[in-house]
Each structure stands twice: as structure tokens, then as C-alpha cells.
Design goal:
20% strand, Rossmann fold, elongated, single chain, 15 helices, eight-stranded mixed sheet, alpha/beta
Length: 382
């Protein structure tokens, strides 16, 4: 008899998000497990007006999507969720459920279902604590306690997060660390990427190219990187990709500073070229909302030293250890951040040493091959 695994994620591919990519990586990891049958349960990722109930297939695995009628504090709400989850349990009869948390709305219905199916094992994939929404965080305390009590295993993305989370630190015996993985196929360097990287270098000859990647939101800390630029000389170029609700505000902050360049949303090819051509990877995130830092691992994969802030309880400083793969600065200290960039620019031997160690750390710890084995062992152990 085979193993049946039900995955519950807030959204799922083709929606592009960190949690959703990891959910897909878990599914792909278990596809190689003999006799394993899988089903994914998620909200439809379209905006409420366009959202519908549907069922499709991704990577040969069925995906049930529930219509969303509203979103509150990033949480989708659905009138059909409970009924469709009940039907999924009754028809699919899972042996194991993998819940990607946070998803308080989905967790409410899941806990109700698990009371009816006490034999089902629960893997609680804990991506991050709810920290920003203080009211919601207080409101869901009781739910978190029930969820952790019901969990057979809790996955954390780093040992730092286990120790820094008020929830995970109280359930260490259930916690298993499975570091996130980069998508190596997405980072392949071909002739197109090499040509574009060469062009970028030629256009910025003699410059120290610093690159930052991410959505323009508060916890990404881009405002501190822009502040740091004020302490740098004209050798430096600070390239910032992406966009978000703070884009206009960040551009206003950087007005008059020619060292800061907003690159916008870039294609995969241009991203790889930017990663290949830069000298230093900047990752200025400041809160535990940055639970791991996949973009950080991608920058390190290209052999670049990283400059980060200290974030207590986050996996960022686990991904890039201080004075091993880069330099860690006091949180939100833009002057210290600038000094770190200057140090790496002036000491090319140190920069090369950190960059080589960064590449090795990612290759040894944060690839899909290692992630796949960790997930397979976790499920097989249950």
C-alpha cells in the first residue's frame, strides 16, 4: 500500500512566492518516493473578483484551488474552503498532511478535520512567526498552541529560527531543520547571460558593483542600504532590483545620489547576469519576516561575499555566517553597513576568500539535492 500525502499551502504554482516555491519543492522531492501519491490544497491566487474554485494539475500532481472572496492582512478568505477540504479528506484519505504555516484560516479547518482523523500524521512546515500583525498574532495564540500540540514534526528552515521563535523554542523536541534550497536550474549561466554580464561590466568599468534583490517592503531594509550609500565614494554602484509598495518612497530617498540605481523587475536572464557581474551582494533585511533569505543564498551561489544585518532569530545569519561568507553589521546601522562595503572593496583578497566560502556553503547546504534527501527522510521517518 502506498503513502498518501496532502499538502496545504496558502497558494501554489504558478503563483510565485517563497513559501509557494518551497511547497512545490517538497512535492517534487516526494515524487521520487516509491508508491507516494500526492494532492495539493490551496487558495486560488487570483484577486477576489477573478477567483474561482478549480482543480488542475502541476508536475503531474493534482491541485485543488478554493475561491477567495476577500483578503485581510495577506490572509485569503473562502466560503468553500471547509467543505472542499472535508471532501478532500474523505476522497483522498491522506496518511500525512504537510501544512505550510502561516495560514490561520486554513489551519482552523485543518485542525477540525484532524480531530476526525486522529491517525493522520501532521508535518507543520513553519516558515515564519506572525510578527507584523500584532492583533492577529494575539488572536491566534490559542490556535498556535493547538497546532503545535497536534504536530508530529515541525520543520524550521534554520536552527536560528528554532531558538528565536517563541513557538518553536517551546517545542524543540518536535523540530527538524530543513534549510531552504535554491533552484540551480534557474541560475544556469549560458552565453546570453555571459554576454549581458560582460556588457554590464563594460558600462560600469572601474566601479564596485553592489547588488540587492527583493520586493520593496519595510522588512527588506532597502532604506538602510540607500542611507549607507551616502557614506560611500563614487567607486560604488548600488543596484536594486524589484518593486513594491515602497518603491516611490525609496526613489525619493535616493534622489540626487547617482550611486543608487533602481533596476525594476528584471527577467531571469538579466537577474543571472546581474548576479554574475556584481562584486558584493547586499542583503539589508532587518526583521524576522526574513526567515531564511533565498535571494541571499542565490547571491552567494555566484561566489560573492554578502553584507547582512544581525537579525535575532532569523536564518539570515545562518545562511551567511559573519566573517566566513561575508560581513554582518549591527541591525539598521547604515554607517556600519557602508564600512563593510568599503572594507570588501579595499581588501580584494578578503572579498575573494569570503566569496569562495559563500559558493561552497550554498553548494554543500542549500541545493535541491540536499533538500530532497532531507524531505524524503522526514516523511519516511513518520
Amino acid at each position: 500500500m502506498g503513502l498518501k500525502v496532502l499538502h496545504i499551502s496558502k497558494y501554489y504554482y504558478p503563483f510565485s512566492g517563497g513559501t509557494e516555491q518551497i511547497a512545490r519543492d517538497v512535492v517534487l522531492s516526494l515524487k521520487e518516493l516509491p508508491g507516494c501519491e500526492q494532492l495539493v490544497f490551496a487558495f486560488d491566487h487570483e484577486q477576489p473578483k477573478e477567483s474561482v474554485d478549480s482543480r488542475d494539475s502541476v508536475d503531474g500532481v493534482g491541485v485543488i484551488r478554493c475561491r477567495c472572496f476577500a483578503k485581510i492582512s495577506s490572509q485569503s478568505l473562502s466560503l468553500t474552503y471547509g467543505k472542499r477540504l472535508k471532501a478532500a479528506f474523505e476522497e483522498f484519505r491522506p496518511d500525512v498532511v504537510v501544512l505550510h504555516y502561516p495560514n490561520p484560516f486554513g489551519t482552523h479547518y485543518l485542525l477540525k478535520m484532524l480531530k476526525k482523523y486522529p491517525e493522520v500524521k501532521l508535518i507543520n512546515y513553519w516558515h515564519l512567526d506572525i510578527v507584523k500583525q500584532k492583533v492577529l498574532r494575539t488572536f491566534f495564540k490559542g490556535q498556535n498552541k493547538r497546532l503545535i500540540a497536534r504536530s508530529d514534526k515541525i520543520v524550521a528552515t534554520s536552527p536560528n529560527y528554532v531558538e528565536g521563535s517563541e513557538w518553536l523554542s517551546s517545542a524543540r523536541d518536535k523540530c527538524v531543520v530543513v534549510p531552504n534550497c535554491i533552484d540551480e536550474n534557474r541560475l544556469v549561466v549560458d552565453s546570453e547571460v555571459e554576454d549581458l554580464a560582460r556588457k554590464i561590466r563594460e558600462e560600469n568599468e572601474g566601479k564596485i558593483l553592489c547588488l540587492a534583490v527583493g520586493r520593496h517592503v519595510e522588512y527588506k531594509g532597502f532604506k538602510y542600504l540607500i542611507e549607507a550609500s551616502r557614506h560611500l565614494d563614487d567607486r560604488f554602484i548600488i543596484g536594486i532590483t524589484g518593486k513594491g509598495p515602497l518603491t516611490d518612497e525609496l526613489k525619493a530617498q535616493a534622489a540626487g545620489d547617482k550611486k543608487v540605481q533602481f533596476l525594476g523587475l528584471v527577467s531571469d536572464a538579466e537577474l543571472r547576469a546581474r548576479l554574475l557581474s556584481c562584486d558584493i551582494f547586499c542583503f539589508p533585511s532587518i526583521t524576522k519576516n526574513e526567515a531564511f533569505g533565498l535571494a541571499l543564498a542565490e547571491g552567494m551561489y555566484f561566489g560573492h561575499p554578502a553584507v547582512t544585518f544581525t537579525i535575532e532569530g532569523s536564518g539570515v545569519n545562518y545562511v551567511s555566517p559573519d566573517k566566513v561568507t561575508g560581513i554582518e553589521c549591527p541591525n539598521s546601522d547604515s554607517k556600519a553597513y557602508a564600512e563593510a562595503l568599503i572594507k570588501l572593496a579595499d581588501d580584494r583578497e578578503l572579498s575573494s576568500k569570503y566569496g569562495k566560502a559563500a559558493r561552497e556553503r550554498v553548494a554543500e547546504n542549500f541545493t535541491f539535492a540536499s533538500f530532497k534527501e532531507n524531505i524524503k527522510k522526514l516523511v519516511e521517518a513518520l
